Recover the amino acids of this structure.
């Protein structure tokens, strides 16, 4: 079931690198659920996410985003897009941007955070 900002009472989500200007707005989907799905698809493991408004993405997910090649990103986008009723190309582009954000964070010895407001 697709849940986005309109379905969440105006909740907006942003992925960001701490102490930097780099960020990426989440699309019209539940960002917490997306992180769980991405983490499962990349790592075949499930970790519960905190209920905090800001939290670090699981390290294993960030590592996979950093090293994901276009073929792997294609597979993840293909798995995730139908779950959020998103066009495959939009899902692929969004995940590619998130991958770039992850590379920026890791190059600074940091990680990617998700802020839900």
């Amino acid at each position: 079931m697709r849940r986005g900002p309109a379905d969440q009472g105006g909740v907006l989500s942003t992925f960001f690198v701490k102490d930097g200007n780099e960020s990426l707005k989440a699309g019209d989907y539940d960002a917490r659920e997306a992180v769980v799905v991405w983490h499962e698809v990349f790592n075949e493991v499930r970790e519960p996410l905190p209920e905090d408004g800001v939290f670090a993405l699981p390290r294993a997910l960030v590592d996979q985003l950093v090293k994901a090649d276009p073929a792997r990103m294609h597979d993840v986008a293909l798995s995730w897009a139908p779950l959020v009723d998103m066009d495959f190309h939009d899902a692929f582009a969004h995940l590619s941007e998130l991958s770039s954000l992850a590379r920026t964070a890791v190059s600074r010895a940091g990680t990617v955070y998700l802020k839900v407001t």
